[in-house]
Amino acid sequence: MAAGASSAQPDTAYRGFITLSVMLATIMQALDMTIANVALPHMQGSMGATQDQISWVLTSYIVAAAIFMPLTGFLAARFGRKRLFMWSVIGFTVASMLCGAAQSLPEIVLFRLLQGVFGASLVPLSQSVLLDAYPREQHGKAMAMWGVGVMVGPILGPTLGGWLTEYYSWRWVFYINLPFGLLAWLGLATYVRETAIDRSRRFDLLGFAMLSLGIGALQMMLDRGETLAWFASPEVVIEAMLAGLFLYLFVAHMFTHPQPFIEPGLFSDRNFSIGLVFIFIVGIILLATMALLPPYMQHLMGYPVIDVGLVLAPRGVGTMIAMITVGKLSGKVDARYKILLGLLLVSFSLWEMTRFNLDVTGWDIVRTGMTQGLGLGFIFVPLSTISFATLAPHYRNEGTALFSLMRNLGSSIGISIVITYLSQHTQMNHAALADYLTPFNLALRQAVEAGAYNVTTPQGLAGLNNEITRQAASLAYLQDFRLMMWITLAAIPLVLLLRAPRKTDRAPEERVPAIE
Fold first, then answer.
1. 191 and 212 assigned to the same domain
2. DSSP class per residue in 427-482
3. How does the average pLDDT of the chain come out, rounded?
4. Domain co-membership, 194 together with 233
């Protein structure tokens, strides 16, 4: 019997309660990826921290979650998936309460670190439990429900975080996890069955250490790079070298060690391997756009924080509509066609966003956001289903952890790319636009004659420069949207490499029972 294998004959009587329980855990963790972002300025004032210091509230969580996420498979096999899931929920909820009660910057950074450690397993375990709770022909339906939490959580996080911060306190950004955590724990304790435990499996400490150091160095490089001017900084260069070295050593170790930390047999499944590349790209698109639109609307268009959240919320509605539709189409339409439709919808929405200007209406942002949300929903659920369709059940805990890790790495790298691209192109656009400000420019002369600008005083020149910077930044945002459009279009050929699973396909360990 394979270690850590799960049931392929799920307990159908409690399937609804199991789904609700794991959805609550998923939403709780997914919300925390973005809900704290909008509260950072309020935390900064409360803690008396600098901009660089308060950023560690986000960095500590991201780095801890990335390092401990690959540990999910081993811990589930060694101690039992249900037991790990329940302790993760308890730890995450308690750490959230401690974050809300923190009185100093070191305290909140420490508690966010703990939150990341315990939260790392929640999404992979949720996906794994749902895959086992439903028969394979209903995996599309199961992934549609799971995907609502994973995709909509980060999208609605800024909206909910802004509302809680505005009308209550930034501390409620963390306290909101208490009801989710309690209900999730009760559901898991009551309805989820334990999996087989393999106490003979040895912990590959060297493999885990190399992977952890590699991922940690990579995340630090991505988080600190923009602030420190990337490779002009010795710190970033060192982090990049450490990331490359330790990740290379981990890969070499994985394929040569008799009992590696991550089993290389995972990558022999073609759909799963291609799915990892795909979900990396989805991660780039999912959070990179959400990292760009709020500052675009606030800084350039003058939207209040609350209005930004309300205008962006329909993006999540589009995702939910797509996921409900995909769930109903499960088993009726080839998953590859749904993924292709999703990629085309996302590409179209990004193309429309390249035509934005500073006078664009809120409806245009809502419309393109809903289109992009629809596209992401059509990509994410079929991709999750087809990636695990032929993967042996005993690989699911490790597979779901890697799947979530690649999505998170894609998000981190995507955000770093678009923010750097934005900064560089703002400077380039400013220089290009400034070249047109000469005494021979008819439009400038007319603006001066009309009294719009005064080029004879320092204040007038400063006002003119501010407008040039504003327009340069606006163009840079559009160039970012175009970059993401090309990245999305470049992913389309990957659809051809996916293999549609046949009804006769069965993983060799599909009938291993779970223990009560």
1. no
2. HHHHHHHHTT-STT-HHHHHHHHTTS--TTSHHHHHHHHHHHHHHHHHHHHHHHHH
3. 81
4. no
Establish how many alpha carbons lie within 13 A of residue 378's alpha carbon, considering only the half-sphere containing its beta carbon: 21
- Token duo for residue 441: 């420019």
Q: Which residues in 457-487 are b (16+ Cβ under 10 Å) and which e? A: eeeeeeebeeebbebbbbbbbbbbbebbbeb
**Whole-angstrom Cα distance, residue 34 to residue 151?**
12
- Dihedral class, residue 229 (left if φ above 0, else alpha if ψ from -120 to 50, else beta): left
Q: Does pTM top 0.90 for this prediction?
A: no
CB of 66 closer than 8 Å to CB of 219: yes
Asked if 516 contacts 193 with a C-beta cutoff of 8 angstroms, the reply is yes
- Domain ranges, residue 27: 8-202
With CA atoms as reference, report the closest residue to 265 among 394, 401, 406: 394
The whole-angstrom separation of Cα 12 and Cα 10 is 6
CATH number at residue 48: 1.20.1250.20
Note the pLDDT tens digit of each residue in 53-98: 676 777 778 778 888 888 888 888 888 888 899 999 999 999 999 9
Reported as a single tens digit per residue, the pLDDT across 203-215 is: 888 888 888 888 8
